[in-house]
From TrEMBL, chain A:
The chain crosses the membrane at residues 60-85. This is Dihydroorotate dehydrogenase. Keywords: Membrane, Transmembrane, Transmembrane helix. It comes from Roseovarius aestuarii.
Automatic annotation (TrEMBL), chain B:
The lineage of its organism: Bacteria, Pseudomonadati, Pseudomonadota, Alphaproteobacteria, Rhodobacterales. This is ECF RNA polymerase sigma factor SigE. Residues 52-116 form the RNA polymerase sigma-70 region domain. Gene3D superfamilies: 1.10.1740.10, Winged helix-like DNA-binding domain superfamily/Winged helix DNA-binding domain (1.10.10.10). It comes from Roseovarius aestuarii. The keyword Transcription regulation applies. One of its GO terms (biological process) is DNA-templated transcription initiation.
Length: 123, 212
C-alpha cells in the first residue's frame, strides 16, 4: 500500500497545534530573569529611579524642550523688555505713529455750536 | 501610574499557563524604548521587558532544543546578555527581538553541537497534563510529533521553519536574524517543510488525519 504524504493543509494543522501548545516559562525562571535584570541594572552608573507621576510644570518643562528652550525664552523676554524701555534710535516712534501725530489736519471740531473753528484755523 | 515590582512579586505572579500570564502594563511602548529606559535605571521597564520577552525567548529555545531544562539555561543567558548590553544599545540599528533571536540561535547551536550524539530517546516528549478533551490530546500529540520531527532537521532549516511557520515572522525579518538573504530563507523553509512532511506522513492516522 502506498503511504499518502502529509499535504500542506495537514502540515499547517500541525504547526497550529504547536502554536497552541507553546511551552511557557516557569515562575522560577521568570524570577531568575527578573533578579538578573535588577542586579545588572544596579551596576549601571545611573541610580535606579522609582517610577512616579510628573507634575504639570515638570511635564510642561519636558514638552517645551527642557533647559535649552527655557534659556531661549528667558533671553527673548529680557530683550523685549529692554527694547520697549530703551528703544534704539533707528526704530520709528511707534507710539506717535499709532496716535496719529501727522494726521492733525483730519481733526474734526465736534463742539456743540458746530462752528468748525479749528478747520478754519487749519486752513 | 507606573509601579515597580520586585522579583518576589514576579514569582508570585509567575505563569504556568497563558491565561495566568501577568499583564504587560506598558504594551504601547516598543521594546527598544523600554530597553532605553531600563538602561537609565527604570525598574518598571525591567519588569515589563522580563514579562514580554522571557516567554517568547523560552518558547523559541524549547522549539530549537526540544529540552526544557536546556531552554531555560539559554533563556536566562540570552536575557542576561541583553541586560548587560542595554547601555550600549544603538537606537534604530536593529529590533530587540531580532537581536535576541540571533543570540538564542547562537546559544542553541553551541548546545546542539555539544549534545550531538545524544540519543533521541533522551529528548522528552512534552509533558502530558491531565487533558480530558480529545481534541486537546490530539493537539498535544501533533505538537509532540512536530517537535520530534523538528529535532531531526538540520539546525538552519529548523530555525527557519520555526520562525516562519510557528512564530509567524516574515522572510525579510528571518533573513536579518539568520544573516542571510530572503531567498535563502525561502529555500530553507521549503526544504524543511518537505522533510517534515516526509517524516510525519507515516503518522498521519495517529495524528488524526484521514485518507478521505
Amino acid at each position: 500500500m502506498i503511504e499518502k504524504k502529509m499535504d500542506d493543509n495537514e502540515l499547517e494543522s500541525v504547526f497550529d497545534a504547536a502554536k497552541e501548545t507553546a511551552s511557557l516559562p516557569s515562575s522560577d525562571l521568570m524570577s531568575q530573569v527578573m533578579r538578573d535584570a535588577m542586579a545588572v541594572q544596579a551596576g549601571f552608573a545611573v541610580p535606579p529611579v522609582e517610577a512616579r507621576p510628573r507634575g504639570i510644570w515638570q511635564e510642561l518643562f519636558r514638552v517645551l524642550g527642557g533647559w535649552p528652550t527655557m534659556a531661549g525664552l528667558a533671553t527673548a523676554a529680557v530683550a523685549g523688555v529692554w527694547i520697549g524701555a530703551f528703544p534704539p534710535g533707528f526704530l520709528p516712534d511707534l507710539q506717535a505713529a499709532y496716535l496719529g501725530a501727522d494726521d492733525a489736519a483730519y481733526l474734526i471740531d465736534t463742539a456743540a455750536d458746530g462752528g468748525f473753528d479749528l478747520v478754519e484755523e487749519a486752513i | 501610574m507606573l509601579k515597580t515590582v520586585d522579583a518576589d512579586r514576579v514569582r508570585r505572579l509567575g505563569p504556568t499557563r497563558a491565561g495566568d500570564m501577568p499583564l504587560d502594563t506598558m504594551g504601547d511602548e516598543s521594546d527598544e524604548a523600554l530597553l532605553m529606559r531600563y538602561a537609565t535605571g527604570d525598574q518598571a521597564a525591567a519588569q515589563a521587558l522580563t514579562l514580554r520577552l522571557t516567554p517568547r525567548v523560552y518558547a523559541h529555545a524549547c522549539r530549537m532544543l526540544g529540552i526544557p531544562a536546556e531552554a531555560e539555561d539559554v533563556t536566562q543567558e540570552a536575557l542576561l546578555r541583553l541586560w548587560r548590553m542595554a547601555p550600549d544599545w544603538r537606537q534604530g540599528e536593529a529590533r530587540v527581538t531580532t537581536w535576541l533571536y540571533r543570540v538564542v540561535a547562537n546559544l542553541c547551536t553551541d548546545r546542539l553541537r555539544r549534545a550531538r550524539g545524544v540519543a533521541l530517546d533522551a529528548v522528552p516528549e512534552p509533558e502530558d497534563e491531565a487533558a480530558s478533551a480529545a481534541d486537546r490530546m490530539l493537539e498535544k500529540s501533533r505538537a509532540a510529533a512536530l517537535q520530534a520531527a523538528l529535532n531531526l532537521l538540520p539546525e538552519r532549516q529548523r530555525q527557519a521553519v520555526i520562525l516562519r511557520h510557528i512564530e509567524g515572522l516574515s522572510n525579510p525579518e528571518i533573513a536579518e536574524i539568520m544573516e542571510t538573504s530572503a531567498d535563502a530563507v525561502e529555500s530553507l523553509t521549503a526544504r524543511g517543510k518537505r522533510a517534515l512532511s516526509a517524516e510525519l506522513s507515516g503518522r498521519r492516522e495517529e495524528l488524526g488525519f484521514s485518507d478521505d
